[in-house]
Amino acid sequence: MIQFIEGLNVLIVNIYTVGVQTISSEIIDDIEQYINACNKYNLVIIEKDLIELNNFIKNQDTNNIINSLANITTKVNILYKKVVYDNLLKGENL
Amino acid sequence: MNYTIKSEEYLLSISNKGILSRSIKDLENLTIDYVVNDDFIELNFSDNTIILKENLNDCSCTCPSSSICKHIVTSYLFLNKELGSDEQLSFDDEEIKNINYKKIFKDLGTTYQKEFLQNIATNNIPKCTKTSIITISPLTNVTVKILNPLDLSTCTCMSKSLCKHKLLAFLYYLVDIGVVDKTMFEVSKKDQNNFIESQKYCLQINKMLTDCFKIGLSRTSETIVEKLERAALYSRVLELADLSNMLRDLSGNFNAYFTQDVFFEETTLLNKIVNVYKLTNNIISANNYTEFSKYAGVFKSEYSLIPSLNLTCISVRDISTKSGYVGKCLYLLDEQSSEVYSFTSVNPTYLNNHIPVTLSVPWSLNVEFDSLIQKKLSIRYPKISVDCRISSSKDTHARVTTTIKENPISNDCINYDYSKLVTMEDLMDNQRIKLISVTKLQSNYFSNIKQSYVINIFDENNFKITCELKKSSDNEVLYNNIIDLLNDNKQLILIGSLYQRSNLTLYVTNYIEVEK
């Protein structure tokens, strides 16, 4: 789970690094892979946002891409906190 | 005159514990004569004449006391038994309903006004407990008891006059019983203009961030650092506290990216951009001032008055900053709440490098700074910030109550089980000063990447905390002392700020050696 969230974080950071205007086809492929992976971890809320993001990218709807990215970033951040908290409690920082 | 029973809780609120317990005791051996008249009750005992009326403020006693004396309290206790019916005195809302809430709101001052509006907008109203009195905590650490008549209301800040806590409590109670709501507070023209101006300015910031997203971090110009600094400054002028702090923070992060700072993390930067972007979106879409004030935030640098504290000085640390300030930081422990408070006194040395620094001792204390260690202090009218720093306010007075010879810290305040330090609320964001007992040292080294001294310690259940000390000459001495003592099998308690990120990190500020 933590690898999935960290991976998703890297993907979002990559989109931000290159800029919303120049998203490559590789990034779109990556998003599709993450949409499939969401099923595995039962992350319906993020899956919905990723599908939406994918559509916005295909339509080159820049403003909505930014809003969608902001929403995903916030959700991933909350999820990351929850996983870190569970891991810290288990003592997995050993 | 009809008499209604005054509960002990009510009598305690109008007097104090001492008076109430003395009155209860006196009542056992007293003979009291009394006459009930149309609008007052007259009582005679212990050579005193007491006149009780409906309004407590109109009651009188022939004794020299200017406030509610034990004779008045004894009279009420006596009448409770003699004339008491089943009807208990309950809090009468009439008086508070008729107060001029607009004037009270005005007297609150800008900071409390904003906090009040923000809380009622988010429905975050403190709980009101209603018995014969109303008990309410309008701020953390402050409890107000609202009584009939209202001017007898008490506050734990000990103020006899109508302090801001009492005013806040009145307003919260009025909101709680539905007499007033958020729409009834008029916004001054200045604030209204500020609201419109803020929305316009947030649009500009939002556009700047949208451009950042569009072109991407790799093509963002270095000028953004300065632009964000300017935006932070102007947001402060517009009294957008949260936005100002976030923009300054964001500017620092962009600066770290351009200067290739080793601590820079792209994820952190992205999270900060998103937070500012969302906040500006919320401010832009606010429909009215109340909604807007929810997002504007309040400046947290202010100190608030709290009830008296009894603290133990557990440690003093020397401070010298690169910007040319030298001083000391005092760590004070509240054994009741296990909270560690700090007080910092610094003087500038950048102009007079050769002149020795003499530090002023706070709170009218008549001792030297260094001799405060292991002293117990009773501090009256302390003012504290949200991160538990105590102000050097002239209104605060302290006195040394005792000197402790043995270990100054009780076991309840020391953290032996590190897993208990993990909390969801403090995860990632907050830092807290903690006292951590060191049982096992696992490893220690200097990290070239972090430019920090690192000490890995374990508790008895093998739960790890990473202790860090940023590289400096002072910290090098501190680090060497800690390692030497741990290698000599000494028992240490580390004092530091605890952060919860992907692991537990303690930024050590000092240590205390204790007997095993």
What this model shows, in words?
- The complex is a heterodimer of chains A (94) and B (516).
- Chain A is mostly helical.
- Chain A has helices at residues 2-18, 25-41, 44-59, 62-90.
- With 516 residues, chain B is α+β, with helices and mostly antiparallel strands.
- Chain B has 13 helices and 21 strands.
- In chain B, a hairpin with a 5-residue loop joins strand 18 (452-458) and strand 19.
- Chain A binds chain B through residues 9, 12-13, 16-22, 62-63, 65-66, 69-70, 73-74, 77, 81-82, 84-85, 88-89, 91, 93-94, and chain B through 210, 213-219, 266-267, 270-271, 273-274, 277-278, 419, 422, 424, 427-428, 461-464, 500-504.
How many distinct beta strands of chain A? 0
Q: Which percent band covers the strand fraction of chain A?
A: under 5%
| Structural class computed from helices and strand pairing of chain A | mainly alpha
Structural class by SSE content of chain B: alpha+beta
Helix content of chain B: 25-40%
Overall morphology of chain A? elongated
Total of DSSP H or I helical runs spanning 4+ residues of chain A: 4
The largest β sheet of chain B comes out as:
6 strands, mixed
